[in-house]
Write a structure and sequence with these properties.
66 residues, three-stranded parallel β-sheet, globular, 2 helices, alpha/beta
Length: 66
């Protein structure tokens, strides 16, 4: 199984979908990832906005860089 994360603005946005163990907030992503010796991570950015300087923008930018 691949190392997949779903990043959202608010955890209540995606409750009950069946992937709760792979869903994190943008703040959790900033604090916890990448982890030392972690396999390559695939990330799906479901943050609300991709406008310049928004959370969604930075989430995608950081995921690409990491």
């Amino acid at each position: 199984m691949s190392n997949l994360l779903l990043v959202v603005d608010n955890l209540t946005d995606i409750q009950g979908v069946g992937v709760d163990d792979r869903v994190i907030t943008f703040e959790q992503y900033l604090e916890d990832h990448p982890k030392k010796d972690e396999k390559k991570l695939s990330l799906i950015n479901l943050c609300d906005s991709e406008k310049y300087l928004s959370r969604g923008y930075y989430c995608s930018l950081l995921a690409e860089a990491r």
